[in-house]
From TrEMBL:
Residue stretches of biased makeup (Pro residues): 1-11
Coiled coil: none
Chain spans, region Disordered: 1-33
Cross-referenced Pfam families: Sulfotransfer_3
Record's protein name: Sulfotransferase
Protein's organism: Hydrocarboniphaga effusa AP103
Origin: domain of life: Bacteria
Biological classification of the source: Bacteria, Pseudomonadati, Pseudomonadota, Gammaproteobacteria, Nevskiales
């Protein structure tokens, strides 16, 4: 998985850890890898040349771009042991990013008033993965006054063809996104139990943040140690300014409203968010971070197993442990430095027990009232989406070499401050 860290021998792993590290379905065909390396470049200059040739455009737009791309490509090539499918995936994701940036800049040049669109009082749901952020966002998405991006729009932010031309209905991007999800759940059916994704439901805006390189998407998928070090040191203010431009563009294309946003990486970027969106409303969900660490390790290992012949569950467990601690330290430092900042705290157990009360708590801070028809839609959603309707998600700390006692000690600063109970799941 990482070139400088050997895969543990099978006897050092749990049965599930062995399934991750030594999957029977991976062939490790060196010919396939050599062909992928020739066909799918990870050289930044070559990628930019290909994107320009595909679009006939030249301007990649403002904000962070060339340097993070260079560092990311170097890490993917030199540090990460991708297989042929992983190489292709990394190449296609970078190409999509570059092509979208070219198309966005072209659209802004031809329609500069897009960037006059107001983005007023956006709601940012922040919290660790597995802490109820998706559940809360989908409940609030029943409110007709809120604007959110469905998965298909996050995957394809600009219409196919000419971006400012009329779009056929239903939008063909919906079917394309559903086809991508069908392929995902065919090769990794267990993902549905871990994190349900629906083409027309909201999702976190990881892909949109990636356009400005203020997203953890690449480290979630590929580890990329040098890029992670670069990302942690970077000031992401320009990246969030670019993200705002993207939101303005989506409003211009499909209509606006008060934005309802959600992503875990916002936790360590609140200074940048409040600089770019000074009237933003911040909602933080809380759940046992050790349970979240183990669960996220399992989700990550499952998600990356197609990119590596030998995913290393111990590397994943170590990285996810560090990332979770980093995110909690980031938001804790912000809240200590800005004690007057109104942030809505939502405990996971309270959200599960009484979701409508939690929504009303958020609305009280936003100065909003939950309309009767919107409350009815939330109740309908709750009835139609019981928890674990697709089955439970089983995971064990031992599979990823995570020492539960050590993690509880390391994260006690957070659990004590916000009175988060330990679940002690293994």
């Amino acid at each position: 998985m990482l070139k400088n860290i050997p895969i543990p021998p099978p006897e050092k792993l749990t049965a599930r850890g062995r399934d991750f590290a030594y999957p029977s379905s991976q062939s490790g065909d060196p010919n396939a890898l050599r062909e992928a390396e020739q066909r799918y470049t990870l050289d930044p200059q070559q990628l930019m040349t290909l994107a320009r040739a595909e679009t006939g455009l030249d301007d990649f737009g403002p904000g962070p771009f060339a340097e993070p791309l260079r560092v990311l490509c170097a890490s993917l090539r030199d540090e990460v042991d991708l297989n042929a499918a992983g190489r292709e995936n990394a190449h296609r994701r970078l190409m999509n990013l570059l092509v979208t940036r070219l198309r966005l800049q072209d659209l802004w040049t031809r329609h500069p008033r897009i960037l006059d669109q107001p983005v007023s009082a956006p709601i940012f749901i922040v919290g660790l993965p597995r802490s109820g952020t998706t559940y809360l966002q989908r409940l609030m998405a029943r409110d007709s006054t809120l604007r959110w991006s469905p998965f298909w729009e996050l995957m394809f932010p600009l219409p196919f063809g000419q971006a400012d031309a009329p779009v056929a209905q239903p939008d063909p991007r919906i079917a394309a996104a559903q086809a991508a999800l069908d392929r995902l759940f065919q090769v990794a059916p267990e993902m549905m139990k871990m994190h349900e994704i629906e083409a027309e439901e909201p999702e976190e805006e990881i892909a949109l943040l990636s356009l400005g390189f203020c997203s953890m998407a690449f480290e979630w998928s590929f580890a990329v140690p040098s890029y992670v070090d670069y990302y942690k040191r970077a000031d992401h203010t320009q990246g969030y300014a670019y993200f705002k431009r993207v939101l303005q563009t989506l409003q211009w294309l499909r209509g606006g409203g008060q934005w309802l946003l959600k992503a875990p990486m916002h936790m360590e970027n609140l200074d940048e968010i409040m600089t770019v969106f000074p009237d933003a409303v911040i909602v933080q969900t809380h759940r046992d971070p050790v349970t979240a660490t183990v669960s996220l390790s399992s989700l990550t290992c499952t998600g990356i197993r197609n990119y590596f012949d030998h995913p290393n569950p111990l590397v994943v467990g170590d990285y996810i442990s560090s990332a979770v601690e980093r995110l909690l330290n980031g938001i804790n430092a912000y809240r200590q430095a800005h004690p007057q900042q109104p942030i809505v705290d939502i405990q996971f157990r309270e959200l599960m027990a009484d979701p409508l009360t939690m929504v009303r708590r958020i609305y009280a801070v936003c100065g909003k009232t939950l309309a009767a028809e919107d409350e009815a839609r939330i109740r309908e959603y709750l009835d139609a989406h019981p928890r674990h309707k697709n089955g439970g998600h089983d995971y064990s700390a031992d599979d990823f070499g995570i020492d539960l006692d050590e993690r509880y000690r390391a994260l006690s600063f957070y659990m004590q401050r916000y009175q988060v109970p330990a679940e002690r799941r293994n």
